[in-house]
Design brief:
Number of strands: 14
Distance between the termini: 132 Å
Shape: rod-shaped
Largest sheet: 7 strands, antiparallel
Number of helices: 1
Radius of gyration: 44 Å
Order of helices and strands: EEEEEEEEEEEEEEH
Strand content: 25-35%
Strand order of the largest sheet: 3-14-13-10-5-6-7
């Protein structure tokens, strides 16, 4: 006889399925009725006015603008809410002043507008691009002197004589000097320069920059004085000025006229005994 193994064995008490009595939920206490934190993603209706002694409304997180809550009576506290929408009553940020910073430099012609710097038009000013890209070349120089941002002063003659100390750049190249019979200013590190002086030889000084702009300074003026090109840095731009000194003045005399005092290198200091 085949026994049905799925049927319940009534003859065996310990194999009968026991049914547990249904559990009744615990009674709600006043403490359990306190408001829990809720998350609301929609507009919340105005809270009804609560009387004195009632429980505090639940703290909620609201991601949209919520309606104004009704005024609550004494003994109730308003619910804490987080509103991520910009409030209309939030004060607007203060507007920035549109007044430009005053320019300390006086107006001057741009470099390239004047083809020649002389006694009538002695000044020209490079723009920011011309003052920062490539090299400024000055041909026809007899000697050049410079002063760095750290007040290091030096000079270089076209015959190879040097004085003072060179201003070294991060690339270990001199900031100002003479190369291939032309005065050179490395504009990549122009922020290290305070001023420079190019003394004309027997030919006019010719100044050029990377974009092809150029200007010339005659070797001597109408009175027979020697030309000197004085370059100074104003902020981030270079200003060129044609000056004139006595034709027979030596390099040292011209340095003194413009206030250049050569820096003595450390290996040339004489220690007192």
């Amino acid at each position: 006889m085949v026994r049905d193994r799925t049927a319940i064995r009534a003859d065996l008490d310990y194999l009968r399925r026991r049914r547990k009595p249904a559990e009744t939920p615990p009674p709600v206490t006043p403490a359990a009725a306190a408001a829990g934190a809720t998350l609301s993603l929609g507009n919340r209706a105005p809270a009804a006015a609560s009387s004195a002694g009632t429980r505090a409304p639940a703290a909620s997180l609201n991601l949209v603008s919520r309606a104004p809550a009704a005024a609550s009576s004494a003994g109730s506290q308003p619910g804490a809410g987080l509103n991520l929408q910009p409030a209309s009553s939030r004060p607007a940020p203060a507007a920035r002043s549109s007044v430009a910073a005053p320019n300390r430099a006086f107006p001057a012609p741009g470099f390239g507008d004047l083809r020649q710097l002389d006694g009538a038009h002695p000044v020209a000013r490079l723009n920011a691009r011309q003052s920062a890209i490539g090299s400024l070349l000055v041909t026809g120089v007899r000697a050049v002197a410079w002063e760095g941002e750290d007040f290091t002063t030096g000079a270089h003659h076209s015959h190879g004589h040097t004085a003072g100390a060179a201003v070294r750049t991060p690339g270990n190249r001199p900031l100002v000097g003479i190369q291939d019979s032309a005065g050179v200013v490395s504009l990549r590190h122009v922020q290290l320069l305070r001023r420079a002086l190019f003394i004309a030889g027997e030919t006019p000084l010719t100044i050029g920059v990377f974009d092809g702009a150029a200007a010339a300074v005659p070797a001597v003026d109408d009175d027979g004085q020697r030309s000197v090109l004085y370059i100074s840095r104003i902020g981030a731009v270079l200003e060129l000025r044609a000056e004139f000194v006595p034709a027979e003045a030596s390099d040292a005399a011209i340095w003194e006229i413009f206030g250049f005092t050569m820096t003595i290198p450390l290996d040339q200091h004489v220690l007192p005994r």
